[in-house]
């Protein structure tokens, strides 16, 4: 099973930007479809973005469309989430995960979750 490590979270003011990174172990990262999710205390994990193996297919949650950009560098085994125009409601722990099939917005269709990185947006 692939191991994933997220980084890049932090505290930012509303309107600011952050770039999250998710580094995967192993030699087959280029064959993985990946996703980003987020979760706040007491709520279910929420879909954020999804990217296919060679980036030919990308999906976003409506709440982040136009503000967030998912990308990947297969040579570095890394998937990114560029977050611009951040809002206080974007505050959450952000997770990356490997897609296993089915619909792309359901957390149970992903495995190999990372430990998460906290993003806090102040108003």
Radius of gyration based on Cα positions: 13 Å
Tell me the structural class: mainly beta
- What oligomeric arrangement do these chains adopt? single chain
User: For the residues shown, what is the average pLDDT?
Assistant: 96
Low-confidence stretches: none
Q: What about the largest sheet?
A: 7 strands, mixed
How much of the sequence lies in strands comes to over 45%
Shape: globular
Beginning-to-end CA distance, first to last residue: 39 Å
- What is the H-and-E element order? EEEEEEEEEEE
Q: How many β strands by DSSP?
A: 11
- Count helical runs: 0
Q: Which percent bin holds the helix content?
A: under 10%
Give an account of the 3D structure:
The protein is mostly beta strands and 123 residues long. It contains no helices and 11 strands. Strands 2, 4, 5, 6, 9, 10 and 11 form a 7-stranded mixed β-sheet that branches. The chain has a 4-stranded antiparallel β-sheet with strand order 1-3-8-7, with no helix packed on it. A hairpin with a 6-residue loop joins strand 5 and strand 6.
Key phrases:
0% helix; seven-stranded mixed sheet; mainly beta; 123 residues; four-stranded antiparallel sheet
Topology, element by element:
Blueprint: E1 4-7, E2 10-13, E3 18-24, E4 34-39, E5 46-51, E6 58-60, E7 68-73, E8 78-83, E9 92-99, E10 110-111, E11 117-122
Parallel strand pairs: 2-11
Antiparallel strand pairs: 1-3, 3-8, 4-5, 4-9, 5-6, 7-8, 9-10, 9-11
Quickly describe the structure.
By secondary structure, the protein is mainly β. Helix content is 0%, strand content 47%.
């Amino acid at each position: 099973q692939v191991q994933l490590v997220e980084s890049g979270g932090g505290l930012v003011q509303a309107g600011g930007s952050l770039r999250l990174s998710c580094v995967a172990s192993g030699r087959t990262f280029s064959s993985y479809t990946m996703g980003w999710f987020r979760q706040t205390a007491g709520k279910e994990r929420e879909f954020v973005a999804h990217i296919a193996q060679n980036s030919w297919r990308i999906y976003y949650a409506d709440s982040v469309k136009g503000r967030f950009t998912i990308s990947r560098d297969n040579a570095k085994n890394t998937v990114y989430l560029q977050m611009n125009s951040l809002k206080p409601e974007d505050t959450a722990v952000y997770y990356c995960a490997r897609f296993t099939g089915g619909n792309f917005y359901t957390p149970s269709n992903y495995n190999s979750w990372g430990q998460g990185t906290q993003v806090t947006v102040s108003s």
